[in-house]
Amino acid sequence: MDEAELRTKLAELREEERAVSAQRVKLHERLASFANAVAEERERELSAKRRELHAEIDRIRGLLGELDA
Q1: More confident residue, 68 or 11
Q2: Domain ranges of the chain
Q3: Which of 1, 5, 38, 48 has the least CB density, counted as fewest CB within 10 Å?
Q4: CA distance 16 to 40
């Protein structure tokens, strides 16, 4: 990938991370008032997805940092 493609991918990942985080916040609010197994499992799935997104964002930032050096 060239630098422009990396920056585009980074922007897409950041947007996806914001969406996942927003879903997590809503789910946490629901869990605070009415916890159930289905919601807890969904929270674990969203948390795992968020961690994956952060890892990929960090990887791309690293690649972009190498290009800037």
Answers
A1: 11
A2: 3-68
A3: 38
A4: 21
What is the Cα–Cα distance from 50 to 18, expressed in whole angstroms?
Answer: 9
DSSP structure string for 2-58:
-HHHHHHHHHHHHHHHHHHHHHHHHHHHHHHHS--HHHHHHHHHHHHHHHHHHHHHH
Q: Collapsing DSSP states into helix, strand and coil, what is residue 69? A: coil
Q: What's the token pair of residue 9?
A: 């991918």
pTM of the model: 0.87
The answer on pLDDT for 21 being more than 90 is yes
- Whether the CB-CB separation of 51 and 13 falls below 8 Å is answered with no
